[in-house]
Amino acid sequence: MSESFRRYLRALPDFPDNLPDFDPAVAPADPAELFRQWLGEALAAGERQPHACSVATVGADAQPSSRMLILKDIDDDGWHIATSRTSRKGQELAATPKAALNFYWPLQARQVRVAGPVVELSAEASAADWAARPAADGSENPDWQVYAVQPHEVEFWQARHDRRHVRHRYGRGQEPDLR
Fold first, then answer.
1. Which residues of the chain form beta strands (DSSP E)?
2. Domain spans, the chain
């Protein structure tokens, strides 16, 4: 059974026939600017929820966990996500304030990784985010918290059919890594 399943998985389609080009030599110096560009291109290509990302955290026991969240904003504070302080995510961020985000856009065979320390934003910012949620009913949620991932690393990945995938990495205090 295992060998047939392995063959089944290997036979699944990989990338779309037409892939966008990506030349790191002309990428903007600011990774947030490139992200906004790629997000717009993902939306134009028909990606559903292009602002959804996998968020990975670790708890006090160093056991990693991940789940999907929606990116709330990008500004000078970092890349914003939100959750309840009492949720597993909130408890893990309290124990180990670091996270990694991963955005994946299969129609374009692109992904973006963001990793770094996490800070809590103000109670006012958290209350405003809670109130702006689609199901907001005017009630308050003192456990709701907006966090900002302050990236030490941002990597853009573009698949290629020849398997020479393009990686463009931004890191603090260094030039982009064009491996």
1. 52-58, 64-70, 73-75, 78-84, 98-105, 110-120, 144-149, 153-158, 166-171, 174-177
2. 19-177
Residue 172 burial (10 A CB sphere; 0-12, 13-18, 19+): exposed
Residue 153 tokens, joined: 């690393």
Cα 131 to Cα 139: distance, rounded to the nearest angstrom: 8
Q: Which residues lie below 8 Å from residue 56, measured CB to CB, with a gap of 6+?
A: 64, 65, 66, 99, 100, 101, 102
User: Do 99 and 118 form a contact (C-beta atoms < 8 A)?
Assistant: yes
The conformation of residue 25, written as its DSSP 8-state character, comes to G
Instruction: Name the CATH code of domain 19-177 (choices 1.20.920.10, 3.90.25.10, 2.30.110.10, 2.60.200.20).
Output: 2.30.110.10
Say whether 88 sits in a helix, a strand or coil: helix
CB 49 within 8 A of CB 35: no
pLDDT tens digits, one per residue of 19-52: 999 999 999 999 999 999 999 999 999 999 999 9
Q: What is the pTM of this model?
A: 0.91
What single-letter DSSP state applies at residue 102? Answer: E
Distance CA(19)–CA(6), nearest Å, equals 26
